[in-house]
């Protein structure tokens, strides 16, 4: 009797707590049943949608229902090949019902372009709300007028000349990475080393603070950032955590709040200390020189423009934390996958070695900005790795207005998911779509290609503001690895299948063997 009463009370709580969302879902569900009827996709049944088709392996059953593991990743890939790449008559659209929730996936440039080039449909779906609780409503999570204002404000902080000021950080931390992995023998997982390198780079470039995580400084802030990323991913894939009683009774909600407070307080202290120091040196409110000619952290640039742009300290905290969140996992993924692909592509790796040897010979000198410009083939390898394994595997938008693609009208309120990896395998534009082939990025081939067939940094008004930063960082770090080592990957694709989490990651780490050259 008591159990039944608790069940009834819990059911009533669900209806009350989610009444607005349930009404919106009911409206959208009824509308989509008709308007999306002809769009191809896996078969669905009432209530469960396509969930009954999801593949689970034994490990998943033991640890509970893991939504994004190797089997499920492979299944999504197969659905994409069947319904996105092989169905041009529907402009690369695929419909998947996740329970009662309809999702539309866009896999070809014909369907991707109307979504990403829109200046109205720029809102992220509700699943981003958990990220906002950590980083606030900065450039990643804000929308409408606030997003437009912040984007306009922050664009100058990623000017190429300002990025050159970060060059010393990139090359210094890349050299440390090449030093610390020298002790490894045989096959080992390189990914933890790369993540620590990227975290050191982002802390120094974003906040002007050195945390020395590569050389043993595993401080509380570093641990908190890593734990928060893991909790956010758990929240995204385990819907029961969306229920506040379960979120807090499990202890996860309290731990999340503790970590958010810790990281936010750390950032606030850095901002206050740096602001005080800059005021004492007369570097705030336009008293300094041209920021394009100075070596300033991202935080310094925001403090310099604070007065005229009416930014509060909390506004600055949001953008610094956004830079931290977006900047370390994405570049870790990009660097790791480039090394992993080259480790299974001997011919391409030889060309990288030859290019670097022509630049540096036997010297162990630091790369200059001009050296990075001349690493043309290495940059092609970075881009090719991002084509096959984009750091951000899915780009989601919640439609603020109807969008018509071909003869299909996608209704306002629908969540649309752009799949960069599918358009990047479109055989109309890629000579060897399934292979790691850096020559895809020869100048004449790029010029002949539809720009929306390659979107690892998204596209349109909400594209990645830090894409030049990312490519420069990756080239600087990768140059150190391949100047010193020959790389061999233990598990090539598809054995080490990439997993589409918030950031794309390998299922078994980046296990490589490094041989000194």
Automatic annotation (TrEMBL):
It comes from the Eukaryota. One of its GO terms (molecular function) is oxidoreductase activity, acting on paired donors, with incorporation or reduction of molecular oxygen. Its cofactor is heme. Keywords: Heme, Iron, Metal-binding, Monooxygenase, Oxidoreductase. Heme binds at residue 464. Gene3D superfamilies: Cytochrome P450 (1.10.630.10). Belongs to the cytochrome P450 family. This is Cytochrome P450 4V2 (inferred by orthology to a human protein). It comes from Nippostrongylus brasiliensis (Rat hookworm).
């Amino acid at each position: 009797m008591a159990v039944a009463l608790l069940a009834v009370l819990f059911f009533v709580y669900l209806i009350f707590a989610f009444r607005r969302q349930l009404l919106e879902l009911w409206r959208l569900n009824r509308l989509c049943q008709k308007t999306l009827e002809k769009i191809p996709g896996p078969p669905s049944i009432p209530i469960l949608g396509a969930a009954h088709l999801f593949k689970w392996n034994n490990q998943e059953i033991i640890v509970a229902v893991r939504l994004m593991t190797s089997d499920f990743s492979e299944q999504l890939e197969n659905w994409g090949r069947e319904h996105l790449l092989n169905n041009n008559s529907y402009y690369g659209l695929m419909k998947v019902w996740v329970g009662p929730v309809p999702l539309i996936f866009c896999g070809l440039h014909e369907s991707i372009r109307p979504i990403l080039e829109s200046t109205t449909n720029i809102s992220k779906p509700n699943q981003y709300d958990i990220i906002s609780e950590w980083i606030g409503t900065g450039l990643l999570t804000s929308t409408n007028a606030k997003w437009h204002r912040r984007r306009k404000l922050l664009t100058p902080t990623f000017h190429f000349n300002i990025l050159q000021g970060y060059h010393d950080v990139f090359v210094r931390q890349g050299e440390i990475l090449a030093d610390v992995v020298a002790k490894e023998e045989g096959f080992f997982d390189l990914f933890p080393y790369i993540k620590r390198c990227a975290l050191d780079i982002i802390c120094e470039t974003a906040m002007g603070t050195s945390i020395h995580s590569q050389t043993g400084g595993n401080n509380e802030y570093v641990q908190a950032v890593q734990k928060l990323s893991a909790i956010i991913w758990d929240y995204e894939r385990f819907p029961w955590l969306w229920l506040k009683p379960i979120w807090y009774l499990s202890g996860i909600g309290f731990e999340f709040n503790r970590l958010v407070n810790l990281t936010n307080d750390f950032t606030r202290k850095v901002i206050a200390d740096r602001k005080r120091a800059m005021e004492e040196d007369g570097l705030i409110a336009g008293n300094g020189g041209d920021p394009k000619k100075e070596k300033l952290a991202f935080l310094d640039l925001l403090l310099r423009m604070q007065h005229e742009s009416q930014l509060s300290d909390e506004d600055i905290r949001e953008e610094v934390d956004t830079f931290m969140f977006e900047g370390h996992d994405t570049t870790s993924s990009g660097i790791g996958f480039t090394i992993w692909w080259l480790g299974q592509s001997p011919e391409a790796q030889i060309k990288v070695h030859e290019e670097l040897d022509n630049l540096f010979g036997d010297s162990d000198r630091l790369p200059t900005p001009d050296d990075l410009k001349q690493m043309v083939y290495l940059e092609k390898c970075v881009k090719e790795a991002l084509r096959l394994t984009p750091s951000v595997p899915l780009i989601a938008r919640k439609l603020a207005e109807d969008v018509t693609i071909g003869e299909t009208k996608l209704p306002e309120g629908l969540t649309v998911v752009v799949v960069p990896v599918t358009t990047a395998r479109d055989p109309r534009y890629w000579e060897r779509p399934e292979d790691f082939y850096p020559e895809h990025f020869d100048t004449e081939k790029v010029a002949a290609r539809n720009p929306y067939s390659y979107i690892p940094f998204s596209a349109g008004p909400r594209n990645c503001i830090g894409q030049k930063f990312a490519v420069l960082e990756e080239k600087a770090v990768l140059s150190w690895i391949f100047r010193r080592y020959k790389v061999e990957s233990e598990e090539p694709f598809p054995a080490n299948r990439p997993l589409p989490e918030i950031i794309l990651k390998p299922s078994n780490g980046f296990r490589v063997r490094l041989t000194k050259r």
